[in-house]
Design goal:
Helix content: 25-40%
Largest sheet: 7 strands, mixed
Strand order of the largest sheet: 5-4-3-6-7-9-8
Number of strands: 9
Order of helices and strands: HEEHEHEEEHEHHEHHE
Distance between the termini: 21 Å
Radius of gyration: 19 Å
Strand content: 15-25%
Number of helices: 8
Length: 320
């Protein structure tokens, strides 16, 4: 079994300056939306989830929810307007039950439900930030994925996106996914590598962009949810028992358009993803974070630095 390599990107030569069907899913670990869950944690001018406080280090405020929807658009453009690359995303796929882990605003779950009206789609998250009006075949659950999964019926497709630094153990996480899939069911993991890449040496370890990724990785380890290189996920799927695990990186010519979307996404995510880890784990003040990120943003927008964040989709099938 071989691991796919990131495609080499070449920079331009000239740079411009709810229904009752849940059954046992409503077990003791599953929380209804209550005042305690809605009483968000206030920190450094942002709000964070209250249920299982501290497990997820990104905010859940309106600014972050807008960014999550923008990120959803980035993934769609990266994967040619496909919600995923695994077979259950085909229009004629016979999928009955789907689980979106870490659903966020619920936008992926709702889009999938619209494309597959005969499927029941469930989204699970620590924060109740999903809309009230959703397709009739969508249910959202507030729950902690670190606890035992107590779903009454297995799923045909389990989707997970941008869970890096939210998962304490990827082996345990993937095992839970495996155990909750029907035979022949699929898992798909979509991730962006936190370590920014460059193929022509214009980005070095001395740049703030590189230091930012290293600081973030250090903080994630101290917080007990370390970043993992997305290329390793294929091996974890295989070790768990999935067959035909596949790593796929996008190969298209729309890199300039994707660069614009990615730039906007990371402009917004820099503060969101850095504030809590840097202040909680590394002992920085919010002012120190702001000063460091100001220089990082300059490099992010510097056309002379030909950097990019690899995006990968990893999927596999549970044996029949």
């Amino acid at each position: 079994m071989t691991t796919a390599q990131y495609p080499v990107l070449v920079a331009d030569e000239v740079a411009d300056d709810r229904d009752s069907s849940l059954g046992d899913e409503a077990a003791s670990s599953t929380q209804s939306i209550s005042s305690s869950i809605l009483n968000y944690r206030q920190e450094n001018g942002r709000t964070y989830h209250a249920y299982k406080d501290g497990k997820y280090n990104l905010p859940n405020d309106e600014h972050e929810n807008d960014r999550l929807d923008l990120q959803h658009a980035l993934f769609l453009r990266t994967f040619d307007d496909k919600l995923g690359l695994a077979p259950p995303n085909e229009r004629n796929s016979d999928v009955q039950r789907v689980l979106d882990v870490g659903t966020g605003t619920g936008i992926w779950a709702m889009d999938y439900a619209d494309e597959h009206p005969n499927a029941e789609v469930f989204g699970v998250d620590l924060s109740p930030t999903q809309p009230s009006f959703v397709p009739p075949n969508v249910q959202f659950i507030i729950d902690d994925i670190d606890e035992e999964w107590q779903y009454s019926t297995r799923f045909d497709y389990i989707f997970s996106r941008m869970m890096n630094s939210s998962v304490a153990s990827w082996n345990t996480y993937v095992r839970k996914i495996f155990d909750n899939l029907t035979p022949g069911g699929y898992v798909e993991l979509q991730e962006i590598d936190v370590f920014v890449a460059s193929d022509d040496g214009t980005l070095t370890e001395d740049h703030s962009l590189s230091k930012w990724a290293n600081f973030l990785h250090e903080a994630s380890k101290k917080l007990g949810r370390p970043y993992i290189e997305p290329g390793k996920l294929k091996d974890i799927l295989a070790e768990t028992g999935f067959i035909d695990p596949s790593n796929r990186w996008p190969k298209d010519k729309k890199h300039k358009e994707l660069g614009l979307w990615n730039n906007e996404n990371f402009e917004r995510v820099l503060e969101a993803v850095s504030l809590a880890p840097f202040t909680r784990a590394l002992g920085w003040t919010s002012e120190e974070v702001a000063v460091f990120l100001a220089n990082t943003r300059k490099e992010l927008n510097d056309p002379k630095i030909h950097a990019y964040w690899p995006i990968v989709s990893v999927y596999g099938k549970k044996p029949l």
